[in-house]
Amino acid sequence: MALVDIRGLTRIFDVSKPWLNRVVERRQKAFLTAVSDVSFDIAERSVYALVGESGSGKSTIGKMLVGLLPPSDGSVEIRGVDLARETDAAKVDAVRRDIQMIFQDPFASLNPRWRVRDIIAEPVAARGGETTGLAERLLEQVGLSARDAGKFPHEFSGGQRQRICIARALASEPKLIVCDEPTSALDVSVQAQVLNLMSDLKDTFGLTYLFISHDLTVVQHMADRIGVLYLGRLVEEADPEALFEDPKHPYTQMLLAAAPQLDNFGREVPPPTGEIPDPINPPTGCAFHPRCAIATSICSQKRPEMRLLRGARVACHLAE
Amino acid sequence: MSSPVLSIRNLTVEIPTRHGILRPVDGVSYDIAKGEILGVVGESGAGKSMAGNAVIGLLNPPAHISEGEIRVGETRVDNLSGEQMRRMRGKEIGMVFQDPLTSLNPLLRIGDQLTETMLAHLDISRSEAEKRAVAALEEVGIPGAAERVGSYPHEFSGGMRQRVVIALALCAEPSLIIADEPTTALDVSVQAQIISLLKKLCRERGTAVMLITHDMGVIAEAADRVAVMYAGQLAELGPVRDVLTAPHHPYTDGLMGSTPLASRGKDRLHQIPGAMPRLDALPTGCAFHPRCPQAQDQCRKTPGPRIEDGAGRVACWYPMTREAVA
Predict the structure, then answer these.
(1) Which residues on chain A are in Cβ contact (under 8 Å) with B262?
(2) Pick from A85, A2, A76: nearest CA to A38
(3) A-B interface: how many C-beta pairs under 8 angstroms?
(4) CA dihedral B314, B50, B23, B12 (to 10 degrees)
(5) Sign of the alpha-carbon torsion through B284, B286, B290, B293
(6) Of the candidates B33, B88, B29, the residue with the CA atom closest to the CA atom of residue B58
(7) Interface contact flag, A264 B215, Cβ < 8 Å
(8) Residues of A with CB under 8 A from a CB of B
(9) What ipTM is given for this predicted complex?
(10) Average pLDDT of every residue of chain B
(11) Domain boundaries in chain A?
């Protein structure tokens, strides 16, 4: 059974101007659809990666999954419990215990006035758990030294701080960790250290990751299953091999062609055309049709449903 | 070979502090020829941006050039006065920075920013400058350039803004452009557009480009030659294909190994142990030796060899010897 079950997830933000401006300037209310009807499952002990460019809604999905944002429509079920609707407090509490999050910026996500020991033990201490020696043990597990527990965050480099964030996420012994761009702020050699650590911890503790990233090579390295987002919609979902060998959606194809590659010296490819459209006024039908090379009239009229195609799920009328 | 557009010899930048003198750039030498893109790559703190800032004379005091020589064309620029340097900037050397929003004046229409730059550096009339501003925007691929000259920077998307910055850097027809992480803040598809634009302009106009980035993929795709920096020093310099497929310096080798690659599948990534040393705590001998898998006694005692005259290949006592993949 899948650990996480996401069905028809939608999030709409009200980005209207204040009431007085709307009246004086005769403007309508404005709504931004950050996530639109997204459905997928995350299997236990797997890495599910969400990729997309800025504004594709990947972080919003992560926030809804951990319960930082309520969904506007649809549901997120974790082991059969819908955090936003479940009324049994005990069940909600049990599930919340199993979810942790790692953020992008290791400088902003640690309290500068707390010692590392307190930062790491906090998720357990907040529930009245036993924390003696916990921080020291976890620090060694993430490749730092037990002596670091008495230090403050500013004494560490970016990569070390991200290790502290990982140690904190592990403290409450979660099942699922949502990693929002965990290595985007790090240099490549440090990124390699952190990615290796995350793979090791996954095996040791039997973790499940939702891995959010814009970097295709990192995703390819980490993921068991990849979902590609465009303008808040899931356009393709496949295993890494299938996605990179045989991308089916025209957007995935464009994204793969645009990603810089180490073995393509002086490559001359026609760069992609256009940019991500305004999410307040998304295109009708398929959101990608204004930039799509193979779009026909149906693409601008009808939003494509997700369908199965050679082991992948793809939302395109024309993909074959 | 004609004389290079940019020639840096033994460039050293020093920052005096209470705890001694720091050298964020230490004895760096390289050339960039006409129409060539030199990629300068390294991790944060390697001194790549500092070297770029030294060339355009934008070092923040107390940082200063303590040794070495920088020539742009025939002119030596490292000892120019502030006023003389101000005339060089924009005219001979164009700049593109990472964040396009902060490099544009938010209160001026982009057309005015372009004409102002041209009037300051070129001997042309205002109406001629306005005509050229539209042409410059067309050249960098901004749709409806004639109408867009009246727009303010906030009305453009990130990718379009970076195009405006490139137009601004090119409008006085400089011979050298310094692009400091020009695509780092952009999405992959927009990054591909900007890289392709830089390559096209460079080829058509013969502009030399110093492309500073931490992204090996961008280097592989855009650069002709690459300079790898580590702790302020040049570790390796050479044609991009040779350096990336057959690195001679163990640091370059480590960097390539830690980059996730399609062909490597899901094996563990190679790790370089440790982190780049802080400038106030540089190890003796070769700066890389504490992290180097093949360090020997000589590496611990004697500073690594230098790449002199911008012609050498690797700054290592025991370089790895490999054949480049054809």
Answers:
(1) 217, 220, 244, 261
(2) A76
(3) 124
(4) 70
(5) negative
(6) B88
(7) no
(8) 53-54, 157, 159, 187-193, 195-196, 199, 214, 216-218, 220-222, 244, 254-255, 257-272, 275-276
(9) 0.79
(10) 86
(11) 2-98+174-314
Contact criterion met (CB below 8 Å) for B318 and B294: yes
| R_g (Cα) of chain B, nearest Å | 21
**Separation CA B63–CA B204 (nearest Å):** 36
At A50, list the tokens. Answer: 């969400």
Residues of chain A with Cβ-Cβ distance to B276 below 8 Å are 187
Per-residue pLDDT reduced to its tens digit, A10-25: 999 988 888 898 899 8
Question: Which positions in chain A touch B252 (Cβ < 8 Å)?
Answer: none
- For residue B24, what is the enclosing H or E element? strand B20-32
Dihedral sign for Cα atoms in the order A215, A170, A34, B101 = negative
Q: Give residue A81's identity as a one-letter amino acid code.
A: V
Distance from CA of A287 to the nearest CA of B (A): 16
Q: Which of B191, B254, B263 sits opposite A189 (nearest CB)?
A: B254
Q: Which residue of chain A comes nearest to B42, CA vs CA?
A: A187
Partner-chain residue, chosen from B192, B268, B276, that has the shortest CB–CB distance to A196: B268
Give the minimum alpha-carbon distance from A266 to chain B in angstroms, rounded to a whole number: 5
Mean pLDDT of B77-99: 86
Query: In a structure prediction context, what are the per-residue pLDDT tens digits for chain A, which is 320 residues long?
Result: 689 999 999 999 988 888 898 899 888 888 889 999 999 999 999 999 999 888 888 999 999 999 889 999 999 999 888 888 888 888 888 888 899 999 888 888 999 999 999 999 999 998 888 888 899 999 998 988 889 999 999 988 888 999 999 999 999 899 999 999 988 888 888 888 899 999 999 999 999 999 999 888 889 889 999 999 999 999 999 999 899 889 999 999 988 888 877 776 766 667 777 777 888 888 889 999 988 888 888 998 999 999 998 889 999 998 87
pTM metric for this prediction:
0.85
Q: Is the pLDDT of residue B1 over 60?
A: no
Cβ atoms of residues A283 and A299 within 8 Å: no
Average pLDDT, chain A: 89
Distance from CA of B266 to the nearest CA of A (A): 5
**pLDDT tens readout for residues B284-306:** 888 888 888 888 888 888 887 88
CA A15/CA A19 separation, integer angstroms: 12
Q: Which residues in chain A are contacts of B240 at CB distance < 8 A?
A: 265-266
pLDDT tens digits along B208-233:
999 999 888 889 888 999 999 998 88
Nearest CB neighbour to B255, from listed A188, A270, A275 = A188
Cα B275 off chain centre by: 22
Which ranges constitute the DSSP H helices of chain A?
A: 19-25, 58-66, 89-97, 116-125, 134-141, 158-171, 188-205, 216-222, 240-245, 250-258, 297-301
- Write the pLDDT tens digit of every residue in A127-177: 888 888 899 999 998 988 889 999 999 988 888 999 999 999 999 899 999
Q: Which CATH class name applies to A2-98+174-314?
A: alpha beta
Residue B267: pLDDT over 80: no
Q: Which of A175, A182, A171, A178 is nearest to A149 (CA)?
A: A171
Who's near B1: CB < 8 A, 6+ residues apart?
Answer: B33
CA distance A274 to chain B (A): 9
